[in-house]
User: Fold ABC transporter permease from Gordonia tangerina.
Amino acid sequence: MTTTISATPASGPMAGTTASDTSSCVTTSAAPTSSGPDRASTSERSRRWIRSIVRYGLPPALSFALAIGLWYCVSYLILNPTRRFLLPPPHEVLTNSLLDPDHVGRMLDALWVTAKVSVVGFVFAALIGVAVGVVMSRGSFFERAIYPWAVVLQVIPVLAIVPLIGLWFGYGMVARTIVCVIIAIFPIIANTHFGLISVDRGSHELFTLSKASTAQRLAKLEFPSALPSMMTGFRTASGLVVVGAIIGDMFFAKGEPGIGTLLDIYRARLQSDDLIAAIVLASLFGIVVFGIFSVLNAFVHRRR
Assistant:
């Protein structure tokens, strides 16, 4: 006996659904979610971040802790209590000066004056230094005529000529700016000159074939090519200009007192707490300025 089975079409909500549609639904519902890979990538980024902190943050933190420990050892184990005022322990500097609004407020006002002198001095040093570097790059005659005097500015003892600067230009803002320029200008001259004479000769020949003018060659070829070297000079000068501003403050006390003026006052009065606190603030300012130009320098090199 033969049994015949007939296929009856489905009815209801599944009616009209083909086998391919059913397979698609099954496949979609069985697809894995992307939360697993996302969590893995997030975990890997976290591990890299932690490794970077350990690699770059741990050594400075350990050296800082060691320095503070040595400071305490000198204050309490080496210095006699009657002479401890020469190097008070760190917590006394913190509470007596850095956390005292009257003391730290005066220091911050003076630091602002020094910062303004530093900015003005850096701008003039950059403008003059780049101009001199450009002139020196125009030919060996100009290089031989100018470079020895740039070296003289680098090696001359600034403290020896500070009295002359005061006699010639007074004891105010102008004299402080001149000291900054003298100290900071040499790295800008040297690095600008080096960058300009290091431009590829093939590029020069291409501009010659295009009949470019001297200004076009300088603006479109030499300056862009020399920019990384120039930024290195600016970064070096940024730290030196802060030193020049502090030296100018110490010797030219007319007008608003800078942080260097306060350093000299605290030294004369044996106010070691305030003296160390002012040194710390001046150092932090120099680090911030140098860090800004380091970031700019890295950005310029990355763009190339």
User: Anything to note?
Assistant: Residues 42-85 form one domain.
